[in-house]
Design goal:
351 residues, 18 strands, alpha/beta, Metallo-beta-lactamase, Chain A, binds zinc ion, 7-stranded mixed β-sheet
Length: 351
């Protein structure tokens, strides 16, 4: 089966983001023999660029599925352009406000009502509620992508589970104080940014650590999706952190027909290649031939050199957008684009 994965450039300076589109099927046949999926839209400009890209390169204004991995501005805000301007058949995104009834007892203050909480969540997660409003206006059906959602075995949601998701919600920003017993899901308080220190790296050492999960609760709500295209496995991770990824691995391995993630053709590296989001434990389970990182041109933290080196040690060719588009294709169309340069191995990495 032919497929193309397009990464559009997002952000500048330290501002990262994801704007991704995947097309698969019969590229020489009619439109209904192809499936087009947008995974996050970056900011407003990258959302607009995605519309043009799909119109121009795919010759259509119809998108079968839009997936919003999580409600952060650098992933969700650009999707408004897609929903407004294109013929979108289905939207997958979490609607945190609809979980208010289930989580209202997760807070220290016992007086919180479901309706008060619902309103608070809708206000604080503006980009997600905007997408919800446009989808309602345009009668686009929305499904919440929880572990187990499966479209014909081709698209499988590996995470988050509904339980894990609901336990993360009280830790999103602007939420009332959660009960201390929910603390295990709380993100660690980050240390103040220190000056970067460097150490030497080589192919025979392992510098990643399996420390506690330090990414935000919002990042850990990211939808983790596996595509199986005629035996080619492609894994997309949003900004998922170590806990979320490990939950997804465990789920995949525990299915009646276990799915291993150690033979991927393609990996979307989580959270713009941050060193906080992967560990040695995870890279022993998730192995890929090709890895893409969506990161801006001038960032010194995205991707971390430690991360791109570690992926190479586990056998991957790593490519980083840095202000350009990247295309991975199988029997697709190279569009006359030149070959991208794989990330080199960096002899010195961040401590
Ligand atoms: Zn992000």
């Amino acid at each position: 089966m032919a497929y193309e994965v397009d990464y559009l450039p997002v952000g500048e300076g330290q501002r990262s983001g994801d704007a991704i589109v995947l097309r698969f099927g019969n590229f020489t046949g009619p439109r209904d023999q192809q499936y087009i999926i947008v995974i996050d839209g970056g900011y407003k400009e990258s959302g607009e660029a995605l519309v043009k890209h799909i119109n121009y390169y795919y010759g259509t204004n119809e998108v079968n599925l839009v997936i919003s991995t999580h409600p952060d501005i650098d992933h969700a805000s650009g999707l408004c352009s897609i929903l407004e301007n294109m013929d979108v058949k289905e939207l997958w995104m979490h609607k945190p406000w609809e979980h208010a009834q289930d989580i209202k007892n997760f807070f220290k203050n016992g007086q919180i009502t479901a309706s008060g909480l619902q309103e608070k969540i809708e206000k604080s997660l503006q980009y997600a509620s905007d997408l919800d409003s446009i989808a309602q206006k345009k009668r686009i059906p929305i499904f919440e992508p929880f572990q187990g959602l499966n479209a014909g075995g081709v698209i499988q949601v590996l995470g988050p589970s509904k339980d894990y998701y609901q336990n993360l919600l009280p830790h999103l920003k602007d939420m009332p104080a959660p009960k201390p017993s929910l603390g295990i899901f709380a993100p660690l308080i980050k240390k103040a940014e220190e000056a970067v220190e460097w150490i030497e790296d080589n192919m025979n050492v392992d510098l990643l650590n399996d420390d506690d999960d330090a990414t935000s609760a919002s990042n850990n709500t990211s939808t983790i999706i596996l595509f199986n295209l005629d035996g080619h496995k492609l894994l997309f991770t949003g900004d998922a952190g170590k806990t979320a990824l490990f939950n997804a691995i465990t789920y995949a391995e525990s299915l009646p027909t276990p799915i291993l993630l150690s033979d991927l053709h393609f990996l979307d590296v989580p959270h713009h290649g941050s060193k906080r989001n992967i560990s040695s434990k995870i890279l022993r389970k998730i192995k890929t031939q090709t890895a893409f990182v969506s990161a801006p041109k001038d960032s010194d933290k995205h991707p971390a050199k430690k991360t791109t080196n570690a992926l190479q040690k586990h056998g991957a060719y790593v490519f980083v957008t840095r202000g350009t588009s990247l295309l991975q294709h199988n029997q697709g169309n190279a569009r006359g684009w030149g070959n991208a340069q794989a990330e080199p191995f960096h002899p010195k990495v961040e401590v």
